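Title: Request for sanity check on SEC-C motif-containing protein prediction

Description:
We are preparing a figure and want to confirm that the structure record we downloaded matches what your pipeline produces today. Could someone re-run it with the sequence below and paste the raw structure tokens into this thread? We only need the token string, no images.
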Amino acid sequence: MAKKRPQTKADRHRTGGGVSTGADIPVVGAREPCPCGSGRRYKACHGRAAAHAATELVRRPFEGLAGEGDWVALRELVPAATAELTLKDGLPEGVPSVTLATVLPMAWPALRREDGSVLLGLQNDTASGDISRDLADTLLRALEARPGTSVQSRRAPAEGPRLQDVLDPEATFAPQVHTGFEFWVPDAENASPEVAASLERANAAAIPTVRLECVDAAYWCRTPEKNHLRWVMPHPEEQLLDALARLHAAGRSGLGEDTRLVGSFRAHGLVVPVWDLPTAMTAQDVEKPAAGFAEHLAEALASTAPLTPEERRARGGLTNRQVTLS
């Protein structure tokens, strides 16, 4: 087993290996004395709590943000989309806008454009168990980055702010789904041949996706075999599965002829039911059935009656086909 290279002070600053409580506590290594004065090594004292906070998985990282379901969808389902973000304290001088993007070129965590605007990438690996904290750290660093540069990933400080602390909770979250990644460059039509070729490759791999207008956080997509609707729902999981089972047992879980509720998956603490749709069924075609299903679901969610044997069997089928993405 290879020996670990001793951590230098420069390394500690880069990786966020130490902590700061706001009282000018210096950055320290894991084996150095804890700055609290206990006499113990940092990793056995305050470092234990800091390490736990940095690695503990936050089950619903986007809870409390406007459009939580859409945050989950843009993170896990949608190839190309953007959404304007409103900061709680307003935009800093020299930053005309902040835009969330599903993915950025080269999988950059964030980009400060030449005009000072900021693009924040959502579909990136994060260093800790709290996506919200990592994204907030990346965003704050992007606001201070030099125009025309990208921001690299790092582990956010354990006590650092989360998106819920940085973004305006009253602002609307309105994703715009794109057919391709032309939003990467300010003037895609006049892009260089190299950039144009890169965009063409990225666009060819993107699954056509449309966000429904009649309900929240529901996304139609087209695949070679069939179309699908994937709908991120905010309801408590057990209550939602009971409601879906009631509708399934009653033959009301579909979205029209030749459609079928095939199961669901969990993503960032929310349940995402999935329907198979005929290849001829467009996003526009599914708008009205989805609105009707939302009404039926509201009724089923309000029921407090015990599940019947048929409903329990339907629920078992749904849970057996459930997977967890995060």
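Thanks, this matches our download. DSSP finds nine helices and twelve strands in the chain.
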